[in-house]
């Protein structure tokens, strides 16, 4: 828990600092006096003045700001923000999101250069190993052994293409979707309604084949204590042959049989170092899902992808472009209803994301930081009051009008903005809590 909180605070604190640094440096470039540089909102817990600027860290680490001289009122001073032409004001407002985008490219460059472990199956053809019960895929008619060739207008060559295909087609307004699969040497065309993204998992209900081999034994289950698997001595590399005498062919078979036990003692037949052994274990009920669990995770073979520095920069820019385009498509989907608002996450979701990434290592953590940095930059560019995009919109309107907007309008604009942002924050926090309670 503490590791998750620490990972969250470091990630959010650094991203906010870098975002505000963009505003700060561009303001300084145009000769604007910066009165306060704050990471966080509320009462300061640390403050130090250097030159004309007060630098502080505030108590609430869910934002930050740069206070510019002459930002709130008209001041006849060359150092005042209000005295600058609108094009400079726009660039100062754009500085934060710009730095977020630059940071995304820099972090992804490091990720591509250092290399990241990815599941080996992601680079292999999308051959279905398991179809979840009552899933979209089962209703469509997809079966284990099918090779997914195409989903809608997206060609699927590897498992990593599936996620893009799901989002692309979930946002498509067509009433029917064509899925092309290869089954026992024959090409079949299936037709179905496009999937709807409800939980943020973008799952069709299909999974690759995963062997019933233990890849990790979890020592402690939060809210439970020592895991059943750890207590009875299960080890990494154990291959599950049977559960209560029923043969197991894949990891999903094992999970299904363990859940069907409803918490009663089960007998595991394992292969360890060429020998067959048996273990009796009493599953624990997961505190959230209430499913019987042993505290084991599957072995998934991974490969490391690393690239030369020059190639890494190019890949980082390319991936950033893809993520920007995808983010705007998702925003469009939220507006049209193609994507459920249940997918929106707030600080709790970000904390979980950061904590899981930190547990996986530095490179996955940097990758998650790059993704959130980009989302922060894009979110701030939305033309909403209080956000950078809202300020840019006001300055553009003033440039077209060739005179300032009325102070009363600006005051009303700010109040509406605060109301919208607070409402959104309350909504995503409630969404996080519901997701946390109902996670299965």
How are the elements arranged and paired?
Blueprint: H1 2-29, E1 34-50, E2 53-68, H2 86-114, E3 116-119, E4 130-131, H3 136-140, E5 147-151, E6 154-155, H4 161-170, E7 177-183, E8 186-192, E9 206-207, E10 214-217, E11 220-221, E12 225-226, H5 228-232, E13 239-243, E14 246-247, H6 251-260, E15 266-272, E16 275-281, E17 284-285, E18 292-293, E19 296-298, E20 302-305, H7 309-336, H8 347-360, H9 362-380, H10 388-401, H11 407-438
Antiparallel strand pairs: 1-2, 3-20, 4-9, 5-6, 5-7, 7-8, 10-19, 11-12, 13-14, 13-15, 15-16, 17-18
Written account of the structure:
This protein is an alpha+beta fold and 440 residues long. Among the domains are: 2-30 and 84-114 and 367-438, no CATH class; 122-207, PDZ domain (Pdz3 Domain, Roll); 214-299, Pdz3 Domain. The protein contains 11 helices and 20 strands. The strands form 8 sheets. It has a 4-stranded antiparallel beta sheet, covered by helices on one side. The longest helix is centred in the C-terminal third of the chain and has 32 residues, at 407-438.
């Amino acid at each position: 828990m503490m590791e998750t909180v620490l990972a969250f605070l470091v990630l959010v604190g650094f991203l906010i600092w870098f975002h505000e640094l963009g505003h700060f440096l561009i303001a300084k470039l145009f000769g604007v006096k910066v009165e306060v540089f704050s990471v966080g909102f509320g009462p300061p817990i640390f403050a130090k003045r250097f030159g004309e600027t007060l630098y502080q860290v505030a108590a609430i680490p869910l934002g930050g700001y740069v206070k510019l001289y002459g930002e709130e009122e008209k001041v006849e001073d060359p150092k005042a923000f209000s005295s600058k032409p609108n094009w400079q004001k726009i660039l100062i407002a754009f500085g934060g999101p710009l730095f977020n985008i630059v940071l995304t490219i820099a972090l992804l460059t490091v990720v591509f250069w250092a290399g990241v472990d990815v599941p080996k199956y992601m680079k292999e053809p999308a051959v279905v190993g398991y179809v979840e019960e009552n899933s979209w895929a089962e209703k469509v008619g997809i079966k284990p052994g099918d090779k997914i060739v195409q989903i809608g207008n997206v060609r699927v060559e590897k498992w990593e293409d599936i996620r893009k295909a799901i989002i692309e087609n979930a946002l498509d307004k067509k009433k029917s979707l064509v899925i092309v699969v290869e089954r026992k040497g024959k090409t079949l065309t299936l037709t179905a309604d496009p999937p709807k993204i409800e939980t943020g998992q973008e799952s069709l209900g299909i999974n690759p084949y995963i062997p019933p081999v233990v890849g990790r034994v979890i020592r402690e289950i939060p809210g439970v204590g020592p895991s059943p698997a750890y207590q009875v001595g299960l080890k990494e590399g154990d291959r599950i042959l049977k559960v209560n005498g029923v043969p197991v062919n894949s990891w999903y078979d094992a999970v299904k049989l363990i859940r069907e036990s409803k918490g009663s003692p089960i007998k595991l037949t394992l292969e360890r170092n060429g020998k067959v052994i048996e273990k009796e274990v009493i599953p624990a009920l997961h505190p959230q899902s209430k499913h019987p669990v042993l505290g084991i995770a599957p072995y998934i073979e991974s490969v490391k992808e690393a690239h030369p520095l020059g190639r890494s920069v190019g890949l980082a820019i390319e991936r950033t472009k893809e993520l920007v385009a995808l983010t705007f498509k998702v925003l469009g989907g939220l507006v049209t209803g193609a994507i459920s608002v249940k997918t929106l996450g707030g600080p709790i979701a970000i904390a979980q994301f950061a904590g899981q990434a930190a547990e996986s290592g530095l490179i996955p953590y940097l990758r998650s930081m790059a993704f959130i940095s980009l989302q922060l930059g894009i979110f701030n560019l939305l033309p909403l009051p209080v956000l950078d995009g809202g300020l840019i919109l006001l300055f553009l309107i003033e440039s077209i009008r060739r005179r300032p907007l009325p102070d009363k309008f600006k005051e009303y604009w700010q109040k509406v903005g605060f109301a919208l942002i607070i409402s959104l924050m309350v909504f995503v926090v409630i969404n996080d809590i519901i997701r946390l309670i109902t996670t299965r």
